[in-house]
Amino acid sequence: MTHAYTPGLKVLSHTVLIKDRRLPLPGDILVKQGEKVTAEQVVSRTKLPGNVQTLNIAGLLGILPEEIEEAMLKKAGEKVKKDELLARSKGFFGLFKSHVKSPIEGRIESISKITGQVILREPPIPVEVIGYINGEVIETIKQEGVRIRSSGSFIQGIFGIGGETIGLLATAVSSPDQPLTQNDIDKSFKDKIVIGGSIVDYDTLVHARNIGVRGIVVGGIEDNDLKKFMGYDIGVAITGHEQVGLTLIITEGFGRLRMADRTFNLLKSLEGKKASINGATQIRAGVMRPEVLVPLESAPTKKTADLSSGTGLEIGMSVRIIREPHFGDIGKIINLPVDLADIETEAHVRVLSVELDNKETITLPRANVEIIEE
After folding, report:
1. Which CATH architecture has domain 53-121?
2. What does the alpha-carbon distance between residue 369 and residue 319 come to, in Å, rounded to a whole number?
């Protein structure tokens, strides 16, 4: 029997959480294997090379490139301050001298007698990587990073913007089909991660950002509101680097979509606990989902699942439909025919039958669903 892999949207009340925390360049590891770390703790750091600026000294002084070394007041490798004199021409009979000042603070990287140019480099940019989740360091990778393990709840969304942030979960609505509005968010939500219901609009996002909300988890959003909030339209590239003032995670899709009960109830049960969220999303090769992670100290009451485990379709499994006309609907698989079937596009594909929450039964291509793992 064919065992087709289907993308899974994970909603796990308790699982093993393992996160790799890598540096962009080789650097220093600040923790040891076996050490307990917090989400906010710096576990590694490095320095990125500063930005480079090029000055055409020969052109600015009106000299030949080969005369640049005689005009330079600083040598390659030396530090310079902003507006400090770098070079000076001899002038005519000691008169009409020209000079060039440094536009930045940094150091002189090179002086070229061929081009008459000087390359300046700004100071290195410090980069620190935090633990992101409370847990234990299970592995250190020399000069590269660490691997941290914890256990707790894990929820994936459909789409998100904004990078990693940490805060206490706070429920702002009473039901998963209730829209999240400005009236639901007051100053008490500052530095919190707000749990909404079916949809959030542009005005509410701006209001939340002004208050100091760190993140919002909600069922849906209109694409026009998202575009207006970001200031530009999103392409097909990876998200997560947007500088919009908060992290937004959409759990269901675009439009007004009731948040799945299991997702809302799990988030609500975790209210007041510290969560780590990341809106980074990639829908092309190497799928990346936005995530909510909540480390828990208590032991799991049921069998845990591994975040990296893939699975196949099985009867009784919960799935979400990801194509129209039933986009966003949730149901359970009741039949998995082995033979190929004809669909409206005249293609021959494997299908499945799903019983929706309203008891309606539909048949659709297997590629049109994703697994909801509990």
Report:
1. Beta Barrel (2.40)
2. 6
Question: pLDDT per residue over 311-335, tens digit each?
Answer: 467 888 888 787 778 877 788 999 8
Considering the four listed CATH numbers 2.30.30, 2.60.120, 1.10.10, 2.60.40, the one that applies to the domain covering 318-373 is: 2.30.30
Whole-prediction pTM: 0.76
